[in-house]
Amino acid sequence: MPLDTNLMYGEMVGSAFAHIAIPMGIVLVLNWLPYMSLSKRTWLLLGFTVLLSFVFQFGFLTFLQASSCQGVKNYTSIGMGALIAAGVTGIMIAIPTFFEPMRLLVSQLFGDHKPLLTPELANINNVVERAGTEFYKASTVPLPVQGGGAALTIDDYEKQTLNEVQIGVSYWAAFAGAYGIGLGSLVAATCPAAS
């Protein structure tokens, strides 16, 4: 029986949506954990995303083989297809994780990136904010005062970076999930010859 391409395309879309949700769920859990460095959180995000990608792809490819071959015939080929798909996911999510411009390309659609506030910049920011507040109080014309929006402390910067990584990884993982099904199906959906 030939490969059901409609099912494969549907699974590609389903896999893309699952791969959007995987990093979001992982970061949600990581935010509940006690403090750990950004580096550890990032590596946990990468590792668990690839692991869960393998699990989801294995399920999708099992269903695809069952449909194409009138039942599951070879778990090894499904495992190889899921391994290929998880490898694609690992490579694609490494791009926004380790290359800031590729991460910001996506994450800035959802919020501005603010620079790290060094001690010197914090001093300048405080002086300018105080001056603006004093000017606002003395002014007869109502003026909006924006305070503290130009840069972030180290803790806030790490939270911002993890949020940007989450957005970037979710975006890139969605494509990886779809491509993974396509590539994995080349191995997993091959039916053994009937004897």
Description:
- This protein has 195 residues and is mainly alpha-helical.
- The protein folds into two domains: 5-109 and 159-188, no CATH class; 117-151, no CATH class.
- It is 75% helix and 0% strand.
- The chain has six helices and no strands.
- It has helices spanning 5-32, 38-68, 75-98, 100-107, 119-138, 154-188.
- Helix 1 packs antiparallel against helix 6 (154-188), helix 2 packs antiparallel against helix 3 (75-98) and helix 3 (75-98) packs across helix 4 (100-107).
- The longest helix has 35 residues, at 154-188.
- The radius of gyration is 24 Å and the shape is elongated.
- It starts with a helix and ends in a 7-residue tail after the last helix.
- 31% of the residues are buried.
What's the quick description here?
With about 200 residues, this protein is mainly α. About 75% of the residues lie in helices and about 0% in strands.
Radius of gyration from CA coordinates: 24 Å
Helix fraction by DSSP (H/I, runs of at least 4): over 70%
- Listing every helix as H and every strand as E from the N terminus to the C terminus, the arrangement reads HHHHHH
Note the main sheet: none
Work out the helix count: 6
Number of E strands: 0
> What is the CA–CA distance across the termini?
15 Å
Unreliable residue stretches:
none
**Overall SS class:** mainly alpha
Number of domains: 2
Strand content: under 5%
**Mean pLDDT metric:** 83
Rough shape? elongated
